[in-house]
Specification:
Blueprint lengths: L1 H9 L15 H14 L4 H9 L10 H25 L5 H10 L1 H33 L7 H17 L2 H31 L20 H11 L8 H4 L8 H29 L10 H10 L3 H16 L1 H17 L17 H17 L8 H26 L4 H25 L1 H4 L2 H26 L12 E7 L5 H12 L4 E6 L4 H14 L4 E4 L8 H17 L2 E11 L12 H9 L5 E9 L3
Parallel strand pairs: 1-2, 1-4, 2-3, 4-5
Helix pairs in contact: 2-8, 2-11, 2-13, 2-14, 3-9, 4-9, 4-11, 4-16, 4-17, 5-6, 5-16, 6-7, 6-13, 6-14, 6-15, 6-16, 6-19, 7-14, 7-15, 8-11, 8-12, 8-13, 9-17, 12-13, 14-15, 16-17
């Protein structure tokens, strides 16, 4: 039944040779990998206005020069990441660039930041999408968390089906959103140009505002820069593109940058000109759409596509998180299970882990993840800064043809990213301080995991590990609970190994049971030595392991190997296991950690 449900939800398994069919063309890649960046126009301008509102609506005109600054930063990042795509065509983005040019620890900082950022991408995007739905239907506000969790489960399932299948489905809402916002901007600008919007709704550019200062403007700029989250996703996911992957990825990145610039600047302009002020339960885009079109079908279309793009922006995380996890796992910094492809050729362990951690965040914050946006943004600008600095080092070290212009581009990107990062810490320290705790903790875990893998490799390597001791003979110990077919089956197996000695061990809890069992054993298996270990405290494990240790010490002196053969019957139905004590499982689990003792389980399958 479980297999059938899995096939319905995920689909039939794909052969490894079908991997080429799971690559993305530019149209689908733009939708899948740009959804995070494009969706940020739904909350990026709003974050700017929320900061400016602290000194009054008259300060909203500052959103125009702030938007210009954000667009300048976007331009620098787009050209910088375009260079990364061609320099590192196998993907990995900031992690690989930082590791190879700035060293292992810089790479780990970038990798840890991006892993957390992709988890936040899913949690923040889905929560924001849910808020957009409940803005249109206020009666749904109490159900924010369940709605968000259902959306995460849906996107997780869709990604488990494979990257091309998820792209085919998710491309339509993304392009519908772009169309809806372009229509909103075009109509809004037309109404402004034709004098249908009163100029009294907003303060003129240049109007003096009491209380405004550099600190507040930097804080607003940093908030607006949250619209640039997701720009790095394409450089991480180059392996998902059809050949020639770097060229296709580069063109997709440029298209994303152009679209993001148009949509972001358009929403900022309309919000300023229409005098939109952010409100707790209604988004800025919702207010603009209502002012431009009224509450009609077009308004609900814009709200619907906005909600969809915010939710589907999470898919950028699902595209980039597993690939970043693969790079970290190959370098032995996270568990190797993240390198395994699933039935549909996607890295399903990474997809499942991302979904699980995102749900934990959504539930933990009650669906109110908007105050995670600064943390989410600073988690992006740290790897932005490291990757651009890494590219500067690469160009200066290698000095290829035309390296000076490339160096300048990356220097500009690194400087602006660093400034934004510092501004975030200075202006939003109360919201971003957790990064100073969880980043060192994650990096410490990376280092510990890496040390474990290195220690394992060192011990398994035949050139460095201790030479194996010769085995002169074999002593077999068979724990027996009674005289049954299960025990008989295990004894027959033990005899077939031609061991030097076979010892059956029985552990009675009462003295009278001990004598009775010994008499029965002598009649049933007189040629096999029986040892009874009375256990007054009703423990099976302690007396048996103590006996095994004694035998093992004596055997090691003669280079004999001790093997414990554990009889186990297997019920016909899985749920029957709960009706039995699972003594064999308990013994096996305990004995696995005994050095120089081999454990063999002999199953006996019940037929009814």
């Amino acid at each position: 039944m479980i297999t059938s449900i899995k096939r319905i939800l995920i689909g039939r398994p794909l052969k490894s040779t079908e991997l080429g069919e799971q690559k993305l063309n530019k149209t689908k890649a733009l939708a899948i990998l740009s959804s995070d960046a494009l969706s940020s126009v739904a909350y990026g301008p709003e974050q700017v206005l929320i900061v400016l509102l602290t000194v009054g609506a008259a300060a909203f005109w500052y959103s125009i020069p702030i938007a210009v600054g954000v667009l300048a930063l976007l331009t620098a990042l787009i050209f910088s990441y375009r260079q990364i795509i061609f320099a590192y065509p196998h993907g990995g983005g900031a992690y690989v660039v930082s590791k190879e040019n700035l060293g292992k620890h810089a790479g780990l900082v970038a990798g840890a930041s991006l892993l957390v950022d992709y988890i936040l991408t899913v949690a923040v995007s889905v929560s924001a999408g849910t808020d957009a739905i409940t803005s249109a239907f206020p009666s749904l506000h109490p159900y924010n968390v369940p709605i968000a969790v259902v959306f995460v489960l849906f996107i997780t399932t869709l990604n488990l089906r494979g990257v091309t299948e998820s792209a085919s489905i998710l491309a339509y809402p993304v392009y519908l959103f772009v169309l809806a916002i372009l229509a909103l901007i075009a109509t809004g600008v037309y109404k402004v140009a034709t004098g249908q919007v009163s100029p009294d709704l907003h303060a003129s550019i240049g109007t003096p505002v009491a209380g405004i200062g550099l600190f507040l403007l930097l804080k607003a700029f940093a908030s607006g820069s949250s619209a640039l989250t997701g720009v790095e996703a394409i450089s991480n996911a180059i392996p998902n593109f059809k050949s020639p992957a770097p060229n296709n990825a580069s063109k997709t990145l440029l298209a994303m940058g152009a679209l993001l610039a148009i949509l972001f600047s358009g929403i900022v302009f309309l919000a300023y000109y229409y005098g939109i002020s952010p409100r707790p339960e209604v988004t800025v885009v919702s207010d603009i759409a209502e002012d431009v079109f009224g509450r009609n079908g077009v308004y609900y279309f814009i709200q619907g596509t906005t909600a969809l793009i915010l939710i589907l922006a999470a898919n950028t995380g699902y595209s980039a998180f597993p690939l970043l996890a693969v790079n970290l796992a190959k370098d032995k910094y996270i568990p190797r299970m993240f390198t395994v492809r699933g039935d549909r050729l996607g890295y399903s362990n990474g997809i499942l882990m991302l979904g699980l951690l995102s749900i934990v965040l959504i539930v933990g914050f009650g669906g109110k993840t908007e105050h995670l946006i600064p943390l989410y943004a600073v988690g992006v600008f740290i790897p932005f800064t490291l990757s651009q600095t890494g590219m500067m080092v690469k160009w200066f070290r290698e000095k290829p043809k035309g390296w000076k212009s490339k160096f300048i581009i990356n220097t500009i990107g690194a400087c602006i990213s660093f400034i934004v990062c510092i501004v975030f810490f200075l202006t939003k320290f109360g919201q971003v301080w957790p990064v100073l705790i969880f980043l060192p903790v994650i990096i410490w875990l990376f280092v510990r995991i890496h040390a474990h893998y290195e220690a394992v490799a060192d011990q398994l390597r035949t050139t460095t590990c201790e030479p194996s001791m010769p085995i002169e003979g074999n002593v077999i110990i068979v724990p027996v609970a009674g005289i049954t077919h299960v025990v008989e089956n295990s004894l027959n197996y033990a005899k077939s190994l031609h061991a030097d000695q076979i010892i059956a061990v029985h552990i009675p809890f009462e003295r009278d049971e001990e004598a009775a069992f010994e008499q029965k054993w002598q009649k049933w298996q007189p040629d096999i030595r029986l040892v009874t270990l009375h256990s007054p405290y009703r423990s099976l494990v302690y007396p048996l392991t103590k006996f095994i240790d004694t035998v093992q010490r004596k055997a090691s002196e003669s280079h004999y190997q001790v093997t414990v053969v554990i009889p186990q019957f297997i019920p016909k139905k899985a749920w029957h296991h709960i009706l039995h004590n699972q003594s064999s499982l308990l013994l096996r689990a305990h004995l696995l950690y005994r050095r120089d003792v081999i454990i063999t389980t002999v199953p006996y399958h019940l037929k009814k």
